[in-house]
Design a protein that fits this description.
The protein is of the alpha+beta class. The protein folds into 2 domains: 305 residues, 3-Layer(bba) Sandwich (FAD/NAD(P)-binding domain); 102 residues. The chain is 32% helix and 20% strand. The chain is built from 14 helices and 19 strands. α1 crosses α2, α3 runs parallel beside α6 and α5 packs across α6. The protein is globular and about 65 Å long. The structure holds flavin-adenine dinucleotide. Flavin-adenine dinucleotide binds next to α3, α4, β6 and α13.
């Protein structure tokens, strides 16, 4: 069998330019080729909460679905933050979709050590959660790869037809009828040449999460830990002057996790800039150590016995690029609780400034996400879910909660599957067909009183 080849957008453009008198497509096919690893209906790139929602949505719709992830496990920030709660997974204690429920049920199957349910959020031990996500993907029939990083896109005649992955065997291509970008950073859209948006003067800080063990709740309250860390700032200058959130892991008595304002004193950092990102990662690693030192050097013996259990595998990133969609969601949409004819998801909770200095959580109303905001404006074949959907800086802050990211991922995955199965581009998909399928998956577009009451 002849090895199959693929052409990247770069190769296509170079070859096209060099072959104006010849066969541009033929030349392009050989200009930049990588072995084809797989061919699928739906390729989901990025396995955070959005990518999980997308892969589950696509596979449950009957599409041959592959989820690829850069790390060795799924969950994205939900896993990197070591116990931080995915919000808006069950607003008002009510199921929001079959996909959200599948993930919750798979974590619950591991018992009380794995999960504690809140009013809208779930508090998880991430080690159980990582396995439960695999269980959910298996149950839905989604296939998945870890240690595969998208590094380029294959674009032919303005349609994305695959993604180039960095693997241990070098660059390899996955061909796909539709692609869903759930990288958080809009990597695929960027590599494919689709328009992306960033607001460099407003980028939210990043945070390396910290996990602590051997906390004695009878002698130590979270406020004591926070006070010790803040007191340590004189000696340890990397410790943030911003907020701290310190909570027990799921139902554990002695294990805690810390979320905090991370790099907020280090200036606006673009996590897609390799130099700035490296500095931020390394400074954050030192910052985590300094926080632990500050706790253990306190005068209080109960704090001195606390141990450093883990640091996040990487900084958790709040904001980078977003895909420019056909519609850009705004702060006003969130605050006015706007509805749209082409609603494919809704977002609840609050406008979360994500540790920005001086910024406060602001209330918003439940509002719709139109199909146009998960559809790349000009490039065909590309949908987007999660934190990089089409929104302004504050419009994105309204959808940051992981339950909301899973909802937009779910919608993008189902849209990608329906398009692939019908052999059409997502732009040509009839929105009522998509809405019907999402309703069958338990998504309720008629929330009646769209006030926030009881739903956060
Ligand atoms: C510090 C911090 C605190 C937060 N606090 C909360 C909270 O308390 N509750 C809450 O609900 N939300 C919180 N949020 C917001 C929430 O975590 C994010 O909005 C959400 O995780 C975004 O989900 P996502 O799937 O879009 O992206 P991510 O969770 O960022 O996942 C993206 C995934 O894509 C993978 N990936 C990226 N690039 C590539 C590539 N090129 N190839 C292959 N894979 C790739 C990544 O490894 C990752 O697994 C917080 C965010 C941060 C950063």
């Amino acid at each position: 069998m002849k090895p199959r080849t693929a052409v990247t957008r770069r190769g296509f453009l170079v070859a096209g330019a060099a072959a104006t008198a010849g066969n541009a497509r033929g030349a392009a096919q050989t200009a930049s080729s990588h072995p084809v690893l797989d061919s699928v209906d739906v390729l989901v790139v990025g396995g955070g909460t959005a990518g999980i929602g997308a892969a589950l949505g696509a596979a449950r719709t009957g599409a041959k679905t592959l989820l690829v992830e850069n790390h060795s496990f799924f969950g994205g920030v939900a896993s990197w933050a070591l116990g931080m709660q995915p919000n808006q997974m069950r607003p008002g204690g009510k199921p929001r979709s079959a996909v959200h429920e599948l993930v919750i049920q798979k974590i619950q199957a591991y018992g009380d050590a794995a999960i504690r349910l809140g009013v809208h959020e779930i508090w998880c031990n991430v080690e159980y959660m990582k396995v439960a996500i695999l269980d959910a993907l298996d149950a839905a029939g989604a296939r998945y790869l870890v240690h595969t990083r998208a590094v380029d896109a294959v674009v032919q005649r303005n349609r994305i037809t695959g993604v180039v992955l960095g693997t241990k065997r070098g660059l390899m291509t996955v061909q796909a009828k539709t692609v869903v970008d759930c990288t958080g950073d809009a990597d695929v859209a960027y590599y494919a040449g689709a328009e992306t948006m960033t607001q460099p003067d407003a980028l939210m800080p990043m945070t390396l999460a910290v996990a602590l063990s051997n906390v004695d709740p009878a002698r130590t309250k979270p406020a004591d830990i926070e006070k010790a860390i803040r007191n340590g700032r004189t000696k340890y200058p990397l410790i943030t002057s911003g907020f701290f959130e310190i909570e027990p892991v799921a139902n554990s008595r002695t294990n805690y996790w810390i979320n905090h304002a991370g790099t907020s004193d280090m200036g606006r950092i673009d996590a897609t800039d390799p130099l700035a990102r490296s500095r931020a990662e390394c400074d954050s690693r030192r910052q985590a150590l300094q926080m632990v030192q500050a706790i253990r050097e306190s005068d209080d013996p109960a704090l001195q016995q606390i141990e450093w259990a883990a640091g996040g595998p990487q900084v958790s990133v709040r904001e980078t690029r977003r895909v420019k969609g056909v519609y850009i969601l705004t702060e006003e949409d969130a605050k006015k609780g706007r509805t749209f004819e082409d609603a494919v998801a809704w977002r609840s909770g609050f406008l979360d400034p994500g540790g920005e200095k001086g910024a406060q959580f602001t209330s918003m109303l439940i509002h719709d996400v139109p199909y146009r905001s998960i559809l790349a404006e000009k490039l065909d074949g590309l949908l987007v879910g999660g934190r990089c959907i089409s929104a302004t800086h504050t419009g994105a802050a309204a959808g940051k909660s992981m339950g909301n990211c899973m909802a937009t991922g779910h919608a993008a995955g189902v849209a990608a599957a329906l398009s692939a199965l019908k052999n059409i581009v997502p732009r040509d998909l009839k929105v009522p067909d998509l809405q019907a399928r999402l309703r069958a998956d338990g998504v309720n577009f008629n929330l009646g009183d769209r006030e926030q009451k009881g739903l956060r």
